Amino acid sequence: MNGYRSGYDSDMSDKEWENLQKYLPAPSTRGAHLRKWDQRVIINAILYVVTAGCQWRMLPNDYPPWQSVYYHYNKWCKNETWFFIHQFLHQQTRIEAGRTPEPSAAMIDSQSVKTTELAESRGFDGHKRIKGHKRHVAVDVLGIPLMVKVTDANASDSKSAYDLLESMFFWFFSIQLIWADGGYKGDLSLWVWNRFQCELEITLNLQGTGFEVLPKRWIIERTFAWFGWYRRLNMDYERKTEHSENMIYIAMIRLMLKRMK
Questions:
Q1: Structural domain span for residue 139
Q2: How many domains does the chain have?
Q3: What is the C-alpha separation between 207 and 152, in angstroms, rounded?
């Protein structure tokens, strides 16, 4: 493989590559990008960026040229390959956990993160005092994201939830119950019931009790903690929000591959 040596912690094992390979699109037979490097090497390089948090131009010389790596990353963002791979692996992960492939319950929440000045747009979250983007995430009971939407940080949780849930129910019409916190109070519950015949349960903190672990809410907080394992997600370094979303899907693909039997 043109002098490439495996051995970085982010590289896939043979078993992980076997679990991933069957969901990949067929390699192109045209173009210089794939005549020289195979898919496994390219994906290992992308996983290195997500895990180590480095710039594309700072990829180690053991990997293919950063232009070739970024070409495939960007191409698979545009045609939603990362999202589809994530969905296939998610089903396999649920089956191995003894659950049905399609979830029946979900949790939604958001996370505000700082961005760099290179971001095409950003906003200010006055509550968290953060200037950047907001990640709106729906997860299943295992904590694996079902859908991710990234907006400017000043977008409200309740208004952004409409777009998040529309996309989620397009893929997961089996969901019958959603847990959310007080930030989603209002007309959202009625809209979810009328449109999808799904119950949205709002869990509120008890006044004056201090810190409290809310039922089921800890699951999505753990998911946000998982994001911190991948340095590329510690901040939002992406120019485009669609790239921000795909970075999360790639990180979760890595997490699921590590856990598969």
A1: 103-238
A2: 2
A3: 30
C-beta separation of 177 from 201 below 8 A = yes
Instruction: Let me know whether 123 and 32 are in one domain.
Output: no
In this structure, are 53 and 177 located in the same domain?
A: no
Q: pLDDT-derived band of residue 213, with 50, 70 and 90 as boundaries?
A: low
Whether residue 73 is found in the same domain as residue 109:
no
Please, what is the average pLDDT of the chain?
91
Q: Are strands 105-114 and 177-180 parallel, antiparallel or unpaired?
A: parallel
pLDDT at residue 220 tops 50: yes
pLDDT at 178: 96
Based on the fold, state whether residues 149 and 193 are members of the same structural domain: yes
- Same domain, yes or no: 20 and 124: no
pLDDT at 108 over 80: yes
- φ, ψ of residue 100 in degrees (nearest 5): -70, 150
Half-sphere exposure of 36 (CA within 13 A, CB side): 12
**Is residue 43 domain-shared with residue 121, that is, in the same domain?**
no
Digit-coded pLDDT (tens) for 115-143? 999 999 999 999 899 999 999 999 999 99
- For residues 56 and 121, membership in a common domain is answered with no
Q: How far apart are CA 138 and CA 105, in angstroms?
A: 10
Sequence letter at residue 192:
V
Nearest CA-CA partner of 52 in 224, 257, 231? 231
pTM: 0.92
- In order, the DSSP letters of 82-151 are HHHHHHHHHHHHHHHTTS-SS-SEEEEEEEEEEB-TTSS--EEETTTTEEEEEEEEEE-TT--EEEEEEE
144 and 197 both lie in a single domain: yes
Domain CATH for 155: 3.30.420
